[in-house]
Amino acid sequence: MHRIFVLRAYGDFTILLQALLRSNKQSQYKLVASAHLQSLFNSLQQFINFGAIQIEFVDFGIDKTLLRFFTNKFFFSPNCFKEIQLIKAYLKFNPNKEGQDYLEQDKRIVWFNFLIGKNFRHIIEDQNVYNTYDQFLENSTFQHLKKPEDKQINGNKKVLIFPDSRLPAKNIPSDVLDKIIQDQTNKGHIVQVAYFKTQTNKHSVSYNHFDELLKMIQDADFIIGADSLPIHLANLLNKPHFILYPKGFTQLFITPFALANQSFGTFEEYKIAL
Questions:
Q1: What is the pLDDT of residues 57-68, one digit of tens each?
Q2: Do residues 115 and 108 lie in contact, with contact meaning Cβ atoms separated by under 8 Å?
Q3: What is the rounded CA–CA span in Å between residue 160 and residue 50?
């Protein structure tokens, strides 16, 4: 059996789960996932039947949303070496003699293999992550939702905005956010802005854990957000959405829904796009 080591952030994990849900090759792959991802998986099981997906959660010491070895900020920290040692120990006691071991992406994979002492292959290169997983798993063409027309979401419909991202540079600027709130309110929508553990104004709501986050997304009619976890959860839950991102940022993580409906744009373009 092949194994995919899942050592990155929540959004990356969500994208991989969606690809596997659509795959007829679930029996050929096992996910070896960092324990920090288990709380999200547990919450998702309230909404999604993951069927025959095989997954093992292992504590590799990851507490910075992804393996420190893949970051610049924590690359030289003592805990980075500790995480690598824990992965080596797992591989020593759990050798894969019948299949190939994979990493999600190719970042620093040569050095990773050197330190680990194993020949991991990678799945993702410099192309859209959703499409790459589908190609890797030989999935059929994605059946996209259609973006609702304004007339379909006019009046007393709930528009939920997620302005924050794991990377601060991707956060929706406050002036852009204010204009989105105004535009959506003028269209007759009920607008809420969701933050993690924070409320900032009369439009804001907060969530404290994944159960609350998923319930918010499920209850909304349309999601607007920065390129971050809530957008990928919206795609997983088949919720129509629009993605905003800074000019010059990669579009590698644009969702299938957004690509099919041209439902994305830069902060500068949002007035026309929305």
A1: 999 999 988 999
A2: no
A3: 26
To 5 degrees, how large is the angle CA 75–CA 122–CA 30? 105
**CA 240 → CA 111, 246, 261, 272, distances in Å?**
40, 21, 10, 18
Give domain status of residue 141, yes or no.
no
pTM of the model: 0.91
Confidence band, pLDDT 50/70/90 cuts, at residue 146: low
The Cα–Cα gap between 170 and 267 comes to 10
Q: What is the CATH number of the domain that holds 14?
A: 3.40.50
Specify the number of domains making up the chain.
Answer: 2
HSE of 99 in the Cβ direction (CA atoms, 13 Å)? Answer: 12
Residue 269 and residue 164 share a domain: yes
Cα–Cα nearest to 116, from 87, 157, 74, 151: 87
83 with 182, same domain: the answer is: no
CB 268: neighbour CB atoms within 10 A? 11
49 exposed, middle or buried (CB, 10 Å; 0-12, 13-18, 19+)?
exposed
What CA–CA distance (Å, rounded) separates 67 from 88? 14
Residues 248 and 223 in one domain: yes
Q: Judge whether 5 and 37 are in contact, CB under 8 Å.
A: no
End residue of a domain, out of 72, 103, 136:
136
Q: Are strands 241-245 and 101-105 parallel, antiparallel or unpaired?
A: unpaired
DSSP state of 24: S
Domain that holds residue 44: 2-136
